[in-house]
Amino acid sequence: MNQKLLDNDPDYHKITSSELISFKTYLPKIQNSFSIIKKHFIGKIKTYIYVVNNREIRSLPVAIQNRHFMHLCGVKYTKGASGFVKDLKNNCSGSSSC
Questions:
Q1: Cα separation, 48 vs 55, whole angstroms
Q2: Per DSSP, which regions of 1-98 are E strands?
Q3: Contact 70/88 with Cβ under 8 angstroms?
Q4: What is the DSSP letter of 47?
Q5: What are the helix and strand counts (H, E) for the chain?
Q6: In whole angstroms, what is the distance from residue 82 CA to residue 78 CA?
Q7: What is the residue extent of each domain of the chain?
Q8: What is the pLDDT along the chain (98 residues), one digit of tens a residue?
């Protein structure tokens, strides 16, 4: 993702050093969560069943992809959703060497 676009996005701010420390603290939990999501949801179709007006049963098939995981975490990553997953798999934690 282009840094200039992010800088102009009112919902974005560059991660601070204290936020990065916090993120690194939670990184093992995020990686574990990704493993669970990958095992049970990614590449599979899950069907959401719901009722409309207490009468009609409907279903909605949902297919989750790797790139959706970043959004589930509530982060915006400068390398994009695919880069977020790639860096998680490579055990990168936001350092410049990744």
A1: 16
A2: 45-52, 56-63
A3: no
A4: E
A5: 4, 2
A6: 10
A7: 18-89
A8: 555 666 667 777 777 889 888 888 888 998 999 999 999 999 999 999 999 999 999 999 999 888 888 888 887 787 888 888 888 888 775 555 56
Question: Sign of the CA dihedral 5, 8, 12, 15?
Answer: positive
Farthest-apart Cα atoms in the chain, separation? 56
Find, among 62, 69, 63, the residue nearest to 87 by Cα.
Answer: 69
What is the identity of the amino acid at 27? L
Instruction: Give the residue among 60, 36, 35, 30 at the shortest CA–CA distance from 48.
Output: 60
Closest CA to 70 of 62, 59, 82, 58: 82
